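tool=predict chain=A
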Amino acid sequence: MFAKPAASDTGDPLLLTPGPLTTGKRVKEVMVHDWGSRDATFLAINSEVLTRLPEIVNGQGDYVTVPMQGSGHSPSRRC
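tool=predict ok
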């Protein structure tokens, strides 16, 4: 009689509170590996992200990316 609850691609229920709470299967698979802050692969990924973000917004040469540690909402508290 009741409708089946909405589910993510992993079968988990969709979480409809603010924020990206429902994580896709591909993201969860990548998150299985723990990265240390001095791990060579982590440093390479981080360097690529820092370079590509200004490029994505057509801001290379005018803007730089400044990494900030914390949860998803903590950078907004620092502005």
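The helical segments are 25-30, 40-56, 74-77. The CA atoms of residues 41 and 48 lie 11 Å apart.
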